[in-house]
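note to self — DONT lose this again. spent like an hour looking for the file last time. sequence + predicted structure for the chain T wanted, 137 res
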Amino acid sequence: MRGFGVTAVVLCIACVATACTAERGYTAAATPTPRPGTTPVLTLPGNVIGTSLAFDAVNQTATVAVSEPGYTGTFTAQSNAPGVATVSPASGTSFTLTAITAGTAAVAFTDSYGNVAQLIVTVTISGGVISISHVVK
């Protein structure tokens, strides 16, 4: 009798893993995946959807949220000019951009299927006073 119970369980598991799942009334939930060419959506400060961000001082930060219809995974982020603007963390769905120095950087946010959204970050340093003192004795 013990062998029969084990055999029945093995047959049931084998059946679930094959095409007979529909015959037995089993259904599998499909995990939605993005269509090829779907572009991730970038939500900028102020809940604005956009592809560019401007800073007017060094060390300013902004949070960018990344999403994509039908996609539940994480995104990788990389700045092409980390000397101008950095992005952290390297992977997730919410990222902090930090202005480093004047210039322009392109930050790419990529899903696991290769779909990319690009954010152009411009850092302009305006105003400010530079004071130089030289004391001669």
